[in-house]
Design brief:
Layout: E1 2-7, E2 16-21, E3 30-40, H1 43-49, E4 58-59, E5 63-71, E6 83-87, E7 99-103, E8 107-109, H2 116-134, E9 144-147, H3 153-164, E10 168-173, H4 176-184, E11 189-192, H5 198-205, E12 211-216, H6 223-228, E13 230-238, H7 252-256, E14 261-263, H8 267-270, H9 274-289, E15 297-302, H10 306-314, E16 321-325
Parallel strand pairs: 9-10, 9-12, 10-11, 12-13, 13-14, 15-16
Antiparallel strand pairs: 1-2, 1-4, 3-5, 3-7, 3-16, 5-6, 6-8
Length: 326
């Protein structure tokens, strides 16, 4: 019988339950997937805690890959035996499972050269890195960026992609071990925020100018420092809230700090168009297959151990990408 991790009430990792489920035949526009590996993303915890609302009981996880085992009426772009991957939010919720039904429109064809484990590690993170680097800011080359959580799963991919585009990368980390990993994946400079003033170090590294773009996945704890790290008319991209939501602020602060720009992108908007999503995926997979972007999986958990995986996520024990094995 198929297995699925889901939650019947919001709360800590202990609310996650590993349960038997019945997976029926796919309906119109759907396929049935035998899953090969499942991504472990910090955003998964937002659903479990209720920060991202979901009807209860709810599956969890939005990012996985596998093999098509059945297709529903009207599905012509995929057939039984195709290898696919997917990422999303509410529309793909339920990825923590051994087998599932899913809308075919959410699927991305997976090249034979990309293993299921690699796909689970990079589909969400890699497509996030792709739209962050290719769709939000028109880099000319030679610019400097500040990347928070540089040793995280997305951070390691963004830093490698940034180097491919001729950018200088300043990455923030919480330990010397993470600094070493970040430098090995493309960071030119690292700042240990546990004992260094990030904005002051950025100004020192950039000869007082500041950076063109800040990628901030931390949120509340780094917001002011991120703004203070930008050069005049620089762009802050808020890509997560690992430390908590950014409190309300007066937009006048953006003018006072140099006519700054601020955006909070969502994957659901940047990956909504299937054709553009496929183009970004092709570019991502091409870099991985060619060895230009390296994917390191630092931790593997069995699907039944999702609660422990969430504890490790929230305590910042995971460096790089982690996955759930099926």
């Amino acid at each position: 019988m198929a297995k699925m991790t889901r939650f019947h009430e919001i709360g800590g990792p202990e609310v996650l339950r590993y349960e038997d489920v019945t997976v029926g035949d796919p309906g119109a526009g759907q396929v049935r997937l035998q899953q090969g590996a499942v991504a472990l993303n910090f955003a998964d915890t937002y659903f479990r805690t209720g920060l991202y609302p979901a009807p209860l009981p709810s599956g969890i996880g939005s990012d996985a890959c596998g093999t098509v085992t059945a297709v529903g009426a009207g599905v012509t772009q995929f057939k039984v035996g195709d290898r696919v991957t997917y990422t999303g939010a509410h529309n793909t919720l339920g990825a923590y499972s051994t087998e599932r039904l899913i809308d075919a429109s959410a699927l991305i064809r997976l090249p034979d050269e990309i293993s299921f484990e690699t796909a689970a590690a990079i589909t969400m993170r890699g497509l996030t890195a792709a739209y962050l680097m290719r769709r939000i800011y028109d880099f000319k080359g030679g610019e400097t960026i500040l990347l928070h959580a540089a040793a995280g799963g997305v951070g390691l991919l963004v830093s490698q992609w940034a180097r491919l585009q001729g950018l200088t990368v300043i990455g923030t980390v919480s330990s010397d071990a993470k600094a070493e990993v970040a430098r090995a994946h493309g960071c030119n400079h690292t700042i240990n925020y546990s004992h260094e003033d990030v904005a002051a170090r950025v100004r020192e590294i950039t000869d007082g100018e500041g950076v063109s773009v800040v990628y901030d996945s931390v949120g509340k704890d780094t917001f002011e420092g991120s703004l203070n790290s930008l050069k005049r008319r620089g762009l802050m991209i808020c890509v997560g809230t690992a430390s908590g939501m950014i409190p309300p602020f007066n937009p006048q602060i953006l003018a006072m700090k140099g006519s700054l720009f601020l955006t909070r992108p969502a994957s659901a908007d940047y990956l909504a168009d299937p054709a553009d999503r496929a183009r970004l995926a092709d570019e991502l997979f091409g870099h991985v297959v060619a060895g230009r972007i390296r994917v390191d999986i630092s931790q593997r958990y069995e699907l039944a151990d999702a609660a422990q995986a969430h504890r490790d996520l929230e305590s910042r024990k995971i460096i790089g990408s982690a996955i759930l094995t099926v």
